[in-house]
Design a protein that fits this description.
The protein is an alpha/beta fold. It has 16 helices and 9 strands.
Length: 394
Amino acid sequence: MGLNPRDSHDRASDMGTNRSESAIRPFRIATPQPDLDDLIGRLDRTRWPDELSGVGWSYGVPLDYVRRLTTYWRAGFDWRAQEARLNAHPQFTTTIDGQNIHFLHVRSPEPNALPLILTHGWPGSVIEYLNVIGPLADPRAHGREPAIAFDLVIPSLPGFAFSGPTREAGWDRHRTARAWAELMRRLGYRRYGAVGNDMGSLINPELGRADPEHVVGLHVTQIYSFPSGDPTELADLSPEEQHQMATLQWFYQNKMSYHALMSQQPQTLAYALLDSPVGLLAWNAQLFGDDVDDDFVLTNVTIYWLTRTAASAARFYFEDAHASHPSEPTSTPIGLAAFAADFGGIRRFANRDHTNIVRWSLYDHGGHYAAHLATDIFVDDVRAFFQALRDQHQ
């Protein structure tokens, strides 16, 4: 494979740290039963709010939606099954820049597999990518051409889930991108690609800037390039661009309160999210809605609850809102796979911020969590994007 995917072995990097700090440590989820018992007890003692009749989702997450999910969480949801599903894949932790980083590391049986790092967002987790592990890492077993295969590195963002809370300020998209570059180097990968959704779509371009000599391409499900405020930029929008603008405007008018609060006062929010599992459920569920299945919602929420990372995850928004972002465009090859009911990107603004967009795919279904909801389409798009890059390098 022309992209020089694998080194011959895994190795820990020194990078100015001692060996214990750079060590790759095996990890397995083993939730203490008292933690689950405490969760059930808190669910049983929920104090429910009142609600206006007939308002649906217009005032926020509806009471009947949260009650239904809570009932299932209390009496039907099987965390141990989800724990076992995660533990079916090799997991590790390592310390990078003083922060614990958890990640899944699934090697392909194919000898020329290209390494990929896959980055989730909020309120998601590594759960977003479990469905794609098999067909990306072992395509032969899933009826796909084995020449396009991938080693997969799927980390929990710093401050999220099994990476544990952040312990100092500054963990924004740029610092995370630098940590990802070190993680891939520490695993012995000289050339690799990146896949991202939500925050992953923000981090990926920075990874291209941070490690351009090693990143072969960036596959994202959103390109966050927006109008500058000049009204002439909005003239002659194509039907596709008009649709994306309408999606963006609706989201800003109806769904951006979470962003404002977490960007400004994450600590104020933290007390409610860490003390009430139903409060955490409602807060996170505002961006799940009815698009995904109950087990997907509750697995993600349970991970945040058990790892006590709702507060540090919220801090990512604060850190990123107060960071300085580069103004120059990225030049690493980038491919967009935009799915229905999600803001994928507006091409004219994306071209301004990224000089090397080589693939622009639009799909009429799938939603924000496309790797989970439209697995086959997502997998095929990732494979096609990196196949094209491979062919260019041969």
